[in-house]
Design a protein that fits this description.
Elements lengths: L11 E3 L3 H11 L7 H17 L1 H12 L9 E2 L1 H10 L2 H19 L6 E4 L5 E8 L2 E5 L8 H14 L3 E5 L9 H10 L3 E3 L3 H10 L9 E3 L4 H10 L4 E2 L7 E6 L5 H12 L6 E6 L2 H15 L5 H11 L1 E4 L3 H11 L3 E5 L4 H4 L7 E4 L5 H6 L25 E8 L2 H17 L3 H11 L10
Parallel strand pairs: 1-12, 5-6, 5-8, 6-7, 8-9, 10-11, 10-13, 11-12, 13-14
Antiparallel strand pairs: 2-7, 3-4, 4-15
Length: 446
């Protein structure tokens, strides 16, 4: 492994070195996986909430959050959410509303409509598109309280037409987080409950005396929340099991090292498990980025977290040529991918796996995090190979619609009988044969 200096904040690697592949292997296998101890604890919480409802919820809230709440204090009223909005400064209110407007506008483009068609045999076929009835949104609290996540999760659900969107977030001994309540009000949340952790997921999945059961749970959380979501899947739907954040900046000689370093640090400050990466064919640029990271890191308030992230999972990687850059990018399948290159549009067709692509030197990742419009809830840990950003489509369900005609029955019915008999399902065959024969009580009309 090559370093630009002994105290470099991030390794400078070359794809020709074995150390580079070892680093990538470590990167792709990172993340929190539930230990047997965590899963046992979460299962116990799920059982307790399912059995005792609000009583268990209040007891667990006191235990884990050091907050004592009565059942009627679990929920924040619409008046409280509106008051929280008014308590914020005018510039903050303006920023939240601007972000909400842009997020709403983008997600309206994702709306889907029901459709039908009639084929040559007179069969009417179609698909009914309908929103879920009730959705739960988990929002982290404490130092990881992000109003932007409220907007990104609630707004697509409301645009989809979800009748009731319920937000849950852990309470604090210091009181409500006004920004979270305000964001929930702006986004159009129907209810807000002061509960968090695995117990909040359990309450949403099973319902309690105060919190109604939902059809789907979305939103990020710690390992206990993620494990709870995984364990209740099937009783309710979930969005994804989100892992630590990641960014990959593909850069050429036209890129600005200070921009790249700033963008890498924007993810490094999230979590010590975050993965900030730069991939370039220019060693000179790579060395300049490492230098900039050191300079900017020294001035960063969250430098302890960012430094650990850079050291453990960050890297500036020098590739031999553009094709190798593309192959590595697709293998990593990063949550965020920036194209800090001269002509970014020519790269887009080659990038197959990523949650979001940011084109050009001005398109910094935080622009997408907050106000561009597309959702910032993105696949992590390589899951961009098969999954997509959160969107309106995640809050819709599809129902097939079928209406047979007499012509279709007479033409296709015998084929159905043959296929059913092939599979040994005699009742299936008879259900069609009765109609072909006019039934036991005479022919019916289509």
């Amino acid at each position: 492994m090559t370093r630009s200096a002994t105290k470099a904040p991030v390794p400078l690697l070359s794809t020709t070195d074995a150390a580079c592949q070892r680093h990538l292997d470590k990167l792709l296998s990172r993340g929190e996986s539930a230990s047997a101890q965590v899963e046992t604890a979460v299962r116990s919480i799920l059982r307790d909430i399912r059995k005792r409802g609000d009583r268990a919820l209040m007891a667990l809230t006191k235990k884990f959050d050091q907050v004592s709440l009565s059942s009627h204090e679990l929920g924040a009223t619409q008046d409280e959410m509106e008051h929280a909005l008014k308590s914020l400064s005018a510039p903050i209110r303006k920023a939240l509303r601007a972000a909400a407007q842009r997020i709403r506008r983008f997600h309206r483009k994702q709306r889907q409509s029901s459709w039908t068609y009639r084929d040559e045999l007179g069969v009417t076929l179609g698909q009914k598109i309908a929103p879920l009835e009730r959705v739960g949104v988990y929002v982290p609290g404490g130092t990881a309280a992000y109003p932007s996540s409220v907007l990104m999760n609630v707004i697509p659900a409301k645009v989809a037409g979800v009748k009731e969107v319920i937000v849950v977030s852990p309470p604090s001994p210091e009181g409500d987080n006004s920004a979270l309540l305000a964001a929930a009000h702006i986004a159009g949340a129907d209810a807000f409950f002061r509960v968090g952790g695995a117990q909040a997921v359990a309450a949403l999945a099973y319902g309690t005396q105060t919190i109604p059961r939902v059809d789907k749970i979305v939103g990020p959380g710690n390992i206990y929340v993620a494990t709870a979501k995984r364990l209740v899947f099937g009783r309710v739907d979930i969005d994804m099991i989100a892992g630590p954040s990641e960014i990959l900046v593909i850069a050429d000689q036209t890129a600005k090292p200070d921009y790249i370093a700033a963008d890498m640090l924007s993810q490094a400050e999230h979590d010590i498990l975050a993965a900030p990466l730069c991939l370039t064919t220019s060693r000179r640029l790579g060395q300049a980025v490492v230098h900039e990271l050191a300079e900017q890191l020294a001035q960063l308030p969250r430098r302890t977290i960012a430094s650990a992230s850079l050291r453990r999972f960050g890297a500036v990687i020098i590739a031999r040529h553009r094709q190798e850059v593309v192959e590595l990018a697709n293998a990593i399948a990063p949550e965020h991918l920036e194209l800090a290159v001269k002509d970014p549009q020519t790269w887009v067709k080659d990038i197959r796996h990523t949650g979001a692509i940011f084109l050009g030197h001005l398109s910094t990742e935080p622009f997408g995090d907050y106000i561009a419009g597309p959702n910032h809830v993105l696949p992590t840990g390589g899951t961009a190979r098969f999954s997509s950003p959160l969107g309106v489509y995640d809050f819709l369900k599809r129902t097939s619609v079928i209406r047979a005609s007499s012509r279709a029955l007479s033409t296709l019915g015998p084929e159905v009988v043959r296929l059913a008999e092939l599979e040994g399902l005699e009742a299936h065959a008879r259900a069609v044969q009765y109609r072909l024969d006019g039934g036991r009580h005479g022919r019916t009309q289509s």
